[in-house]
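re the bet — no i am not wrong, look at it urself. input seq straight from the record:
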Amino acid sequence: MAPANPLRSLPIDAAYLASVLASISGPIVLVGHSYGGAVITNAAAGIPNVKALVYIAAFVPDKGEQLGVLINKCPGSIIQPATRPVPYPGPDGTTGTDLYLEAGSFRAVFAADLPAATTRLMHATQRPFSAACFTDVTTSAAWHTIPSWALMSEADKAIPPALQRFFYQRAGARKVADVPGASHVAMMSHPGITARLIEDAANSRS
Protein backbone atom coordinates (compact mmCIF):
# COMPACT_ATOMS: atom_id res chain seq x y z
CA MET A 1 0.00 0.00 0.00
CA ALA A 2 1.10 3.57 -0.69
CA PRO A 3 -1.23 5.79 1.38
CA ALA A 4 -1.14 9.50 0.64
CA ASN A 5 0.67 11.78 3.05
CA PRO A 6 -1.65 14.77 3.69
CA LEU A 7 1.30 17.15 4.33
CA ARG A 8 -0.87 19.36 6.56
CA SER A 9 0.86 19.01 9.93
CA LEU A 10 2.75 16.32 11.80
CA PRO A 11 -0.12 15.52 14.23
CA ILE A 12 -2.68 15.36 11.40
CA ASP A 13 -0.47 13.34 9.08
CA ALA A 14 0.65 10.87 11.76
CA ALA A 15 -2.92 10.30 12.99
CA TYR A 16 -4.10 9.73 9.42
CA LEU A 17 -1.34 7.21 8.72
CA ALA A 18 -1.96 5.46 12.06
CA SER A 19 -5.60 4.97 11.03
CA VAL A 20 -4.45 3.35 7.79
CA LEU A 21 -2.03 1.08 9.65
CA ALA A 22 -4.81 0.03 12.02
CA SER A 23 -6.83 -1.19 9.03
CA ILE A 24 -4.10 -3.62 7.91
CA SER A 25 -3.94 -7.16 9.24
CA GLY A 26 -0.60 -8.93 9.29
CA PRO A 27 2.96 -7.65 9.60
CA ILE A 28 3.89 -4.23 8.21
CA VAL A 29 7.20 -2.88 6.94
CA LEU A 30 6.66 0.88 7.05
CA VAL A 31 8.67 3.05 4.66
CA GLY A 32 9.03 6.83 4.80
CA HIS A 33 10.90 9.33 2.61
CA SER A 34 12.03 12.80 3.70
CA TYR A 35 9.35 14.37 5.94
CA GLY A 36 7.58 11.01 5.70
CA GLY A 37 10.25 9.68 8.05
CA ALA A 38 8.90 11.94 10.78
CA VAL A 39 5.38 10.81 9.99
CA ILE A 40 6.14 7.08 10.28
CA THR A 41 8.21 7.74 13.41
CA ASN A 42 5.11 9.16 15.12
CA ALA A 43 2.44 7.00 13.47
CA ALA A 44 3.95 3.57 14.16
CA ALA A 45 4.20 4.02 17.92
CA GLY A 46 1.97 1.55 19.72
CA ILE A 47 0.97 -0.41 16.60
CA PRO A 48 2.26 -3.95 17.26
CA ASN A 49 2.12 -5.28 13.70
CA VAL A 50 4.62 -2.69 12.43
CA LYS A 51 7.71 -4.89 12.41
CA ALA A 52 10.25 -2.64 10.67
CA LEU A 53 10.80 1.00 9.78
CA VAL A 54 12.65 1.93 6.59
CA TYR A 55 13.92 5.49 6.21
CA ILE A 56 14.76 6.76 2.72
CA ALA A 57 16.79 10.02 2.90
CA ALA A 58 14.52 10.84 5.81
CA PHE A 59 14.05 12.75 9.02
CA VAL A 60 14.17 10.48 12.08
CA PRO A 61 13.20 12.77 14.97
CA ASP A 62 13.11 11.88 18.63
CA LYS A 63 10.34 12.81 21.04
CA GLY A 64 10.21 16.57 21.64
CA GLU A 65 12.16 17.52 18.50
CA GLN A 66 11.13 19.85 15.66
CA LEU A 67 12.20 19.41 12.03
CA GLY A 68 12.86 23.14 11.64
CA VAL A 69 15.49 22.89 14.36
CA LEU A 70 16.96 19.58 13.18
CA ILE A 71 17.47 20.77 9.58
CA ASN A 72 19.99 23.33 10.89
CA LYS A 73 21.92 20.81 12.97
CA CYS A 74 24.29 20.08 10.08
CA PRO A 75 25.23 22.39 7.20
CA GLY A 76 24.40 21.59 3.60
CA SER A 77 20.64 21.94 3.16
CA ILE A 78 19.55 24.48 0.55
CA ILE A 79 15.87 23.56 0.51
CA GLN A 80 14.44 26.28 2.75
CA PRO A 81 15.70 29.26 0.67
CA ALA A 82 14.37 27.50 -2.45
CA THR A 83 10.76 27.43 -1.24
CA ARG A 84 7.98 29.86 -2.07
CA PRO A 85 5.35 30.49 0.66
CA VAL A 86 1.70 30.56 -0.37
CA PRO A 87 -1.02 31.33 2.23
CA TYR A 88 -4.11 29.15 2.42
CA PRO A 89 -7.29 29.43 4.53
CA GLY A 90 -7.91 26.95 7.32
CA PRO A 91 -11.37 25.57 8.12
CA ASP A 92 -11.32 27.41 11.46
CA GLY A 93 -10.68 30.78 9.83
CA THR A 94 -6.95 30.82 10.47
CA THR A 95 -4.38 31.15 7.69
CA GLY A 96 -1.73 28.54 7.03
CA THR A 97 1.30 28.62 4.77
CA ASP A 98 2.11 26.12 2.05
CA LEU A 99 5.68 25.78 0.79
CA TYR A 100 6.41 25.12 -2.88
CA LEU A 101 9.83 24.48 -4.40
CA GLU A 102 10.62 27.09 -7.04
CA ALA A 103 11.00 25.96 -10.64
CA GLY A 104 14.47 27.42 -11.03
CA SER A 105 15.94 25.48 -8.12
CA PHE A 106 13.77 22.35 -7.98
CA ARG A 107 16.16 20.05 -9.82
CA ALA A 108 19.32 21.23 -8.04
CA VAL A 109 17.76 21.01 -4.60
CA PHE A 110 15.59 17.95 -4.90
CA ALA A 111 16.49 15.70 -7.81
CA ALA A 112 19.81 16.59 -9.44
CA ASP A 113 20.47 13.01 -10.58
CA LEU A 114 17.26 12.74 -12.63
CA PRO A 115 16.71 13.96 -16.21
CA ALA A 116 15.57 17.57 -16.56
CA ALA A 117 12.38 16.47 -18.34
CA THR A 118 11.49 14.28 -15.35
CA THR A 119 12.12 17.04 -12.83
CA ARG A 120 10.04 19.54 -14.81
CA LEU A 121 7.09 17.18 -14.45
CA MET A 122 7.87 16.62 -10.78
CA HIS A 123 7.90 20.37 -10.19
CA ALA A 124 4.60 20.90 -12.00
CA THR A 125 2.87 18.15 -10.01
CA GLN A 126 4.45 18.73 -6.59
CA ARG A 127 2.13 18.72 -3.59
CA PRO A 128 2.69 21.60 -1.17
CA PHE A 129 4.12 21.08 2.28
CA SER A 130 2.63 23.02 5.17
CA ALA A 131 5.14 25.19 6.99
CA ALA A 132 3.59 23.94 10.24
CA CYS A 133 5.36 20.62 9.70
CA PHE A 134 8.67 22.36 10.50
CA THR A 135 7.48 23.58 13.91
CA ASP A 136 5.30 20.67 15.04
CA VAL A 137 6.78 18.65 17.89
CA THR A 138 7.36 14.90 17.64
CA THR A 139 5.31 13.19 20.34
CA SER A 140 6.37 9.56 19.81
CA ALA A 141 9.50 7.94 18.39
CA ALA A 142 8.72 4.41 17.24
CA TRP A 143 12.35 3.67 16.34
CA HIS A 144 13.12 3.22 20.02
CA THR A 145 11.20 -0.07 19.96
CA ILE A 146 10.90 -1.01 16.26
CA PRO A 147 14.03 -2.02 14.27
CA SER A 148 15.00 0.32 11.47
CA TRP A 149 16.77 0.25 8.10
CA ALA A 150 17.94 3.31 6.21
CA LEU A 151 19.15 4.70 2.90
CA MET A 152 21.56 7.61 2.91
CA SER A 153 21.68 9.87 -0.16
CA GLU A 154 25.29 11.02 -0.33
CA ALA A 155 24.57 14.06 -2.55
CA ASP A 156 21.38 15.17 -0.84
CA LYS A 157 20.81 18.94 -0.85
CA ALA A 158 17.60 18.79 1.17
CA ILE A 159 18.54 16.69 4.21
CA PRO A 160 22.36 16.80 4.46
CA PRO A 161 24.12 13.41 4.48
CA ALA A 162 25.73 14.24 7.82
CA LEU A 163 22.30 14.78 9.34
CA GLN A 164 21.00 11.55 7.85
CA ARG A 165 24.02 9.74 9.30
CA PHE A 166 23.30 11.22 12.72
CA PHE A 167 19.67 10.10 12.54
CA TYR A 168 20.46 6.57 11.45
CA GLN A 169 23.24 6.05 13.98
CA ARG A 170 21.09 7.37 16.79
CA ALA A 171 18.24 5.06 15.81
CA GLY A 172 20.59 2.09 15.69
CA ALA A 173 19.66 1.22 12.12
CA ARG A 174 20.37 -2.44 11.41
CA LYS A 175 21.53 -1.62 7.89
CA VAL A 176 22.38 1.66 6.17
CA ALA A 177 22.67 1.69 2.38
CA ASP A 178 25.03 4.51 1.37
CA VAL A 179 24.31 5.66 -2.18
CA PRO A 180 27.06 7.88 -3.65
CA GLY A 181 25.78 10.63 -5.92
CA ALA A 182 22.15 10.09 -4.91
CA SER A 183 19.90 13.13 -4.66
CA HIS A 184 17.07 13.54 -2.19
CA VAL A 185 14.82 11.29 -4.30
CA ALA A 186 17.03 8.20 -4.23
CA MET A 187 13.98 5.95 -4.53
CA MET A 188 13.51 7.35 -8.05
CA SER A 189 17.13 7.53 -9.18
CA HIS A 190 18.15 4.26 -7.50
CA PRO A 191 14.97 2.15 -7.31
CA GLY A 192 16.82 -1.16 -7.22
CA ILE A 193 18.88 -0.27 -4.15
CA THR A 194 15.78 1.10 -2.44
CA ALA A 195 13.73 -2.01 -3.19
CA ARG A 196 16.47 -4.34 -1.98
CA LEU A 197 16.75 -2.43 1.29
CA ILE A 198 13.01 -2.75 1.88
CA GLU A 199 13.13 -6.45 1.00
CA ASP A 200 16.01 -6.92 3.42
CA ALA A 201 13.95 -5.36 6.20
CA ALA A 202 10.96 -7.56 5.34
CA ASN A 203 13.01 -10.75 5.17
CA SER A 204 14.80 -9.98 8.43
CA ARG A 205 11.49 -9.58 10.25
CA SER A 206 9.55 -12.45 8.67
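see?? The first helix runs from residue 10 to 22. told u. also Residues 3 and 47 are 17 Å apart (CA to CA). so pay up
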